[in-house]
Specification:
This protein is of the alpha+beta class. It has two domains: 84 residues, Nucleic acid-binding proteins (OB fold (Dihydrolipoamide Acetyltransferase, E2P), Beta Barrel), CATH 2.40.50; 31 residues. The protein is built from one helix and five strands, in the order E-E-E-E-E-H. A hairpin with a 5-residue loop joins strand 2 and strand 3. The chain is elongated, with a radius of gyration of 21 Å. The relative contact order is 0.17.
Length: 122
């Protein structure tokens, strides 16, 4: 029986990079694959832009095959880079500041109403 559970975040070492995904070594018993669809939500032109062989990263367990000692993994929606620097440039999303622009006024109004209600209840 595996000590892994679906949802676990584990440290893995990249052993291979192919056009369809990332092969990793989990430990002495288990290997894993991060399929290209589990790397990012956007289109991936080149998997090599995300990781390199020999790199240690974090991955989320999304499937377990006990017979083959193989894990299906994901790095989508998580900070998988073990060596991430606080000084790295943050990539702006496609929508940028648009959600803030579109919602700021209503958020301010809602907050003012909430504060007023809290004052009234005291």
């Amino acid at each position: 029986m595996s000590s892994f559970k679906i949802g676990d975040i584990i440290e893995v070492k990249v052993t291979g990079v192919e056009s369809y995904g990332i092969f990793v070594k989990v430990n002495d018993d288990y290997t894993g694959l991060i399929h290209i669809s589990e790397i990012d939500n956007s289109f991936i032109k080149d998997v090599n832009d995300y990781v390199h062989v020999g790199e240690t990263i974090y991955a989320n367990v999304i499937g377990i095959d006990e017979d083959k000692k193989h894990l299906s993994l994901s790095i989508k929606n998580m900070n998988y880079d073990n060596n991430a620097s606080e000084n790295k440039k943050v990539n702006e999303s496609i929508s940028g500041f648009l959600p803030l622009h579109n919602n700021l006024e209503s958020w301010i109004d809602e907050t003012i109403k909430r504060i007023d209600k809290e004052k009234e209840s005291k």
